Task: structure prediction
Amino acid sequence: MLLEGDLYGDARLTPEREGKTLAFLAESILRDYPGRVAMVSSFGAESIVLLDMVARINPNTPILLNETGMLFAETLNYQREVSALLGLTNVQLVRPTRQRLAEEDPNGLLHRNDSDACCNLRKSEPLRRALAPFDAWITGRKKFQNDKRAEMQPVEQDGAGRVKLNPLADWTPSDIRDYFDRYDLPRHPLVSQGYPSIGCAPCTSLVLAGEDARAGRWRGTEKTECGIHYVEGQFIAGAGI
Result:
């Protein structure tokens, strides 16, 4: 598997770090935003780590998955497998409306000409609607994933003034790997096939040995983020609250 854990040597996930993260999540879900917080998950390569922690606190926490209509079949199968394994009872598939698809992408080829517009149509717009009832949301982003995320804070604010919680912000690849091993969690089936970061099928390619884990996302372009963490076209990171 192409996790970049070697960059962090042999450091292990400590009980203190795991406990601190669980406490942060429990306070957010049960005390600060009871019934008013959702987790957004791609059910991608590392998603099960945070999903497992949320399930340990409250398996009925709303879990929002952007079902763009272009996900790998393996991702949808993995979502069903993981949901059953962890006992998640409130997974919601968030889709673009038929009207918007007919208006903007009737042939399903928008990603070839304008990947930003495609991500906005199939991810950002539907997610904004899905998050409207909530005061806070939980993401699985980590600082090590790319330069833009390196300044991310555990608690931020999105463009709608909603609180955005990043409980794994300071976790390292070694922490992620250790959590997988400690709880014997199943990997996304595409990871072993050379996909260490997994998005929509048309915009995700194999990653070669030595490449960055996200090198296969929108390969050949400067795009590194889908846009759900953008405000007015700009990536927002480091604006902790």
